[in-house]
Amino acid sequence: MRRLLAAFALFLGIAWAGLPADACTGIRLTSGDGAVLYGRTMEWGTFDLNTRITVIPRGSAFTALTPDGKGGMAWKAKYGVVGLDMCGKLTLADGLNENGLAVGMFYHPGFAEYPVFKASERARTLSPLDMAGYILTNFADVEEARAGLSRVRVVDVLEPTIGAGVPGHWMVTDRSGRSIVVECTGGAVKVHDAPLGVITNAPDYDWHMTNLRNYVNLSPFALPGKKIGELDLKPLGAGSGMIGLPGDNTPPSRFIRAVAWTQTARKTATAGETVYEVFRIMDNFNLPLGPGAAEGHAGAQAPAGLMRSSTIWTAAWDLANLKLYYHTQHNRRVRLFDIKAVDLTSGGVRHYPLDKVKAQDYEDVTPR
User: What is the pTM of this model?
Assistant: First the structure.
């Protein structure tokens, strides 16, 4: 038996080493007073993304990346933005603009399909790395974003830190509670309505929505007991209505869990109280380091950085009150960044670290 288990462990190690894994999860909740909150985890198991809080004032100038290095679409920010960047670059993984529009970028490996770059289309060309910033700086709500994205081409661009292009898709949510998912499939930008406000990774969004039909039996209510002859069988404890909920960390299973948890979330009266519920749900998706645990890339050039988890950070954005709450792999204390208190009219693009010190702060409650 011991040899069998060792062989099985070796097999799993070999299998995991060759498999890409995708692990970011995004959700939307609405409080009783109508405030909309968007939350997400950022998983990347290869290296620390060294994410910073990035402040982008109105009027900031941008030029999109292109494969030939000569630049694509150029624009100036119509709206001020606070975002979370990656790898020390002005590449936003997440963000919220001053009009209450939130955008999250999620990995979409094996399914993102970009058109071939054409120099003649340069003026309307973006890269996947530009998408979140472009949407946040240009549009006030979901409908504006939907219309604006119908006019752009998204082409792949090499990202040196992973030695490859970046397959991405995006969830866009506004303060009214509407959400869309934007994908690049078949060489075109496609927009899907996202009524449940949930996103994970591969495959395509419409596949995930169809897969929900396999779980229509799930319920927050306990299953009834059943009599078989003289036996009176009752469920073993609470939670029997969720029997069949998939527990693995594949994107399809996380999508089902995210729908189940958001649709059965505790009712909350205010945005502040809903922050607790966002983090409670998102903590279900924390992932450890290890083979196959989270997103990563075999060709990545890993920057120096301490890694304690594949879940690098977790964020909750309050779209009504323009606030960012977050905790990180290094410090589980929830911190607040108040966007209304930040100057979004001048001062240029600024960056602030998520962790001043990459260590957990503890309150010592030992009686003295």
Answer: 0.91
